[in-house]
Amino acid sequence: MVTLSQLEDDLLAQLAGADPSTILDNLPLIEGLEKTKETSKEIAEQVKKAKITEKEINSSRELYRPVAAEGSMLFFLIINLCFIEHMYQYSLDSFVAFLYRAIDRTEACEDLRER
Q: Most buried in the list 20, 31, 75, 87, measured by CB within 10 Å?
């Protein structure tokens, strides 16, 4: 957007300084208009691609939300074990190791809901 804004500013400056009687013969001004138009089209295409990518990322993220909820519930359950018995105190590193062991023991499956 910075490029487009800069091109628009340059174009406006050229328009402000142009002679109205020879505006159609002003080649730098016409070239500036064409360049601004091309850049605007490119940016619009990139914005479309970005929106599509954002939708794909959001849908992929939602597939993993139940796993994240289970993982956070398990973390807080393990952390709260120390209230039952003070010897059950776990660090984040031990929880991560426990989680990785659980992932390694789980069978591989293509269906995300079964994972």
A: 75
